[in-house]
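BUG: 3D viewer hangs when loading the predicted structure for this chain

Environment: internal workstation, default settings.
Expected: structure renders.
Actual: progress bar stalls at 90%.

Input used:
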Amino acid sequence: MSARDTSLDLDELVARAAVAGQILAGVGPSWIAAHAPELAHLNGDPGSKAPPWTGEEDAFLKAQLGHLSYAEIGERLGRSTTAVKVHAVRLGLPGPSQHPDFITANGIGDLLGICPKRIALYIDEGVLPGRVITPVNHNRVIHKEALKRWLVNVQNWVYFDPERVRDPHLKRLLALRKERWADAWWTTRQVAGFHGVGTTDVKRYIRMGRLPARQVKFPGRRWGHWYVLRSDTTDPKLHFYRRGEEQSSWSPALDGFLVLGRAVGLGVKGLAALCDRDPKLVDNRLRTLRDRGRLAGIAADLDLRFNPETGALFAPWQDHAGRFPALANAVDRFLSGRRRERDLRLVRGVLRSWARWYAPEHPEIRAALPKLRRSGRGLKKRIEEGYRILLAAGIDPLGNAPGSWPLREIV
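Structure tokens produced before the viewer hung:
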């Protein structure tokens, strides 16, 4: 025999010894064939059976089933995935997805009222503390205690709605946690509605770092939703400003002037001209004061009339003619028959303010409101007709006796 043949025989003997040692250690022939194909021909009879399961292997299988997949257990024990699965069935053990300590992605979706596909994606992205147990069909499970801890964490409430949880026990647990928390997550739309601004303004403040927020991206997408704590939203120090608007633009005195101007009947454009501000900024500021509930306080400080039910402001322009001389001159010219277009708009604002205030007590005055809202052609005729309706009801908005009209008190 040549030296070359002797070397080949020694290599084969070593390989056979290695296979024999693996089989004696409990490694099945199928595992050797799967993980070492070059040794498959040394396993002997292809139909030979794997060594019997030992008590230690049974204990390991019972302890790890549910925590590890069939493949992972087979990797630890040196057996095939099929052998582990078959032996688990023979022992009457539940499958990993049926383990009493775990819940599947489908079960979580039914529990929280969320699509199971989203739950699966949350697990894959690490949002939920779960894992894949069967690589073939990608079944995912979460330990029930880990899921409970995740659910009661208020930081995770941006991913689901606690009100939609269907399990009575968990629903009660979340209700108690919500009561102790005494806060809530708001969307950008809710924040915008509270402050009377647009959602773009809210997102701009978030990007600038003025408003703390959390972004929840939808799995598989680049965009998502922003969520803001209600406590941060209602912070008195938080105030929204339009682009290019300085924080010192609005002072309490200027806010009072805007409210007084609206009470006597000035429009947004007229107030903007008097304040040297953009009409959109003035309109936004008045909306902000209204949405924040500050109109009542300002009206009380200035001794104005305010109806909280309709949001109407009212003050006789005659009592404040010194602060609005242009308005007083427009009324004088209107009464004397010199009716310019600009004067007509100012007078219309006065008549509309009075009509809106007295309409709840005088149904006939309601007919004057539509006539006084419109502008354009026929404005002079509509103003004259609306003025006649108010006079017929015993109310003269353009009279010259300041403070002599019965003012409607709001209790």
